Amino acid sequence: MEVLEIAQVEMFCPNEIVIPAHRRSELLCVVWEGTCVERDPADIGGSDSDPEGHELADLERAVYTGDETARRSSPTVWHAGDWTGPVALQPDTERSAEVLDGDGPKDVVALSVEGVKVIMLNMKDLHQILKTGSKLFRKYLALKEKQAAEEAAMKAQMMRNEEFFGGIGTNGDTYRIDPAAEQMPNHWYAYDSVLEVLKCNSALGKLTALQKRHLESLAEGPRYFETGCYLWQVGEPVDYGFLIVAGTATFTQKPEDEIWKNRRGSTGTMLPPVSFQLYASAKCYASLMSCLAAGRSPKRYQTGYPDIEEDKQLFNVPPNSEYARLEVGLQLRVEEMELDVYDHAKDLSPKEERMRNARDRFANKVLARLYSRRAYTAGLVFSRGHFLSDTSRMVSGNLAHIHHAGRQESMGSIGHGLSGDHHCHTSNMVAGPDGCVVMVFPRSSLVQFLDGNPGVLLSLLGTQIVV
Question: 0.85 cut: is pTM over it?
Answer without folding.
Answer: no
